[in-house]
Amino acid sequence: MALQIASHESFCQHPAQSVLKTLQVFCLSQKLFGGENFKKEISKKARILLQECQDLKEEAFYKKDVSRLMSNELLCDHMTEISSELTQDALLKLSLLAQHFDSNGSVSEELRQFIAEPQAMFHRICKFIWSQYNDQSNNWVLLEDFEQEMVRLLTFLETAFTTRRNVIFVEAEYSASYTD
């Protein structure tokens, strides 16, 4: 049974990481991170990542080709770490969300649009992935409960990626710990 859970988690991690990357990049593209104060305190790698995210800006977030940005080593490493800390249930939800927009679970323009403006299609998408979730999960939930869980998960991640688990801040902490 443990082997099935481990393979299920690894199967979900790649598509889940697509959502995590998309959300982190969206957070870093916000005006909050546009100030020069952030750039003074972070490494060169983090500064480059932040600048690329800032270049997107909110309105262009889902219109521009961001494939090179999504393969940024710092971003990928951080999302691998984050995804390893998530529950199997959270990984499944994020994986289903990514796969809804692209069967490969990659970062599609539609996924980026959803992250930038989730309210426009949230209920419809939740309704679609809810049925898949119930088929693949060990605990069946009502649609309303599933929607609330998705809101909590995405809100939690957005808050984390804006504050304490932001790739820029975490990378700065790693750099400081190696130089002390």
UniProtKB/TrEMBL annotation:
Q: Look up the domain of life of the source.
A: Eukaryota
Official protein name in the record? Uncharacterized protein
Organism, per UniProt? Aspergillus homomorphus (strain CBS 101889)
